[in-house]
């Protein structure tokens, strides 16, 4: 997927169409990537529910690392959500990133840094593509810490 994707606002959606139409089994890769991520979220929610049911929140260090892990997975999913649509996901991306503006002192600066300005442009898509590729490694490391923190 990464070899055929173009992080450009005018070419992002056509590059995804190219992956689905012209790349061997590209449609399968795209669907496995999207549906696998959705199933991963279902597993995470079940894991959180089990932790709530059995009182695992008592183990504060493990629970807090799990919360950080959930936020990392959500950030990775958000970055991946914006990528194929380019400018078309402007509304959804605005709503989600504006949640960050509620953070005291750093919220507005954080939103402007993530966006790379005030709108989705090529720099934003390139940044999101990089984060979407790097964050899974951070998630893997945090998962190991989560497992070892009990």
Provide an overview of this structure.
This protein is an all-alpha fold and 150 residues long. The chain has a single domain, classed as Up-down Bundle (Cytochrome Bc1 Complex, Chain C). The protein is built from six helices and no strands. It has helices at residues 12-21, 26-53, 60-82, 90-98, 107-115, 122-148. Helix 1 (12-21) packs across helix 2 and helix 3 (60-82) packs antiparallel against helix 6 (122-148). The chain starts with 11 loop residues before the first helix and ends with a helix. The chain crosses the membrane at residues 32-53, 65-84, 90-116, 128-148. GO terms for molecular function: metal ion binding; oxidoreductase activity; quinol-cytochrome-c reductase activity. It is found in: Mitochondrion inner membrane. Keywords: Electron transport, Heme, Iron, Membrane, Metal-binding, Mitochondrion, Mitochondrion inner membrane, Respiratory chain, Transmembrane, Transmembrane helix, Transport, Ubiquinone. It holds the Pfam family Cytochrome_B.
Short description:
This protein is mostly helical and 150 residues long. The protein has helices at 12-21, 26-53, 60-82, 90-98, 107-115, 122-148. One of its GO terms (cellular component) is mitochondrial inner membrane.
Highlighted features:
globular; 71% helix; 6 helices; 150 residues; mainly alpha; Cytochrome Bc1 Complex, Chain C; single chain
* Sheet with most strands: none
CATH architecture identity: Up-down Bundle
Question: What is the terminal separation in angstroms?
Answer: 36 Å
Number of helices: 6
Secondary structure: number of strands: 0
Mean pLDDT: 86
> What would you call the shape?
globular
Strand content: under 5%
Secondary-structure element pattern, one letter each: HHHHHH
Assign the structural class, choosing from mainly alpha, mainly beta, alpha/beta, alpha+beta, or little secondary structure.
mainly alpha
CATH superfamily: Cytochrome Bc1 Complex, Chain C
Number of domains: 1
| Rg, alpha carbons | 17 Å
In CATH, what is the class? Mainly Alpha
Reported by name, the CATH topology is: Cytochrome Bc1 Complex, Chain C
Oligomer: single chain
Poorly predicted parts: none
Helix content: over 70%
């Amino acid at each position: 997927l990464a070899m055929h994707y173009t992080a450009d606002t005018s070419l992002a959606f056509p590059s995804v169409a190219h992956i689905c139409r012209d790349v061997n089994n590209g449609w399968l890769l795209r669907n496995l990537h999207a549906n696998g991520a959705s199933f991963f979220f279902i597993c995470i929610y079940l894991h959180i529910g089990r932790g709530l049911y059995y009182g695992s929140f008592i183990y504060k260090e493990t629970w807090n690392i799990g919360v950080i892990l959930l936020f990392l997975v959500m950030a990775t999913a958000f970055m991946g959500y914006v990528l194929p649509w380019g400018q078309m996901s402007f509304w959804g991306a605005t709503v989600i990133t504006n949640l960050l503006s509620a953070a005291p002192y750093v919220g507005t600066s954080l939103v402007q840094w993530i966006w790379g300005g005030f709108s989705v442009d090529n720099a934003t898509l390139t940044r999101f593509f990089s984060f979407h590729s790097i964050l899974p490694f951070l998630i893997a490391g945090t998962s190991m810490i989560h497992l070892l923190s009990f």
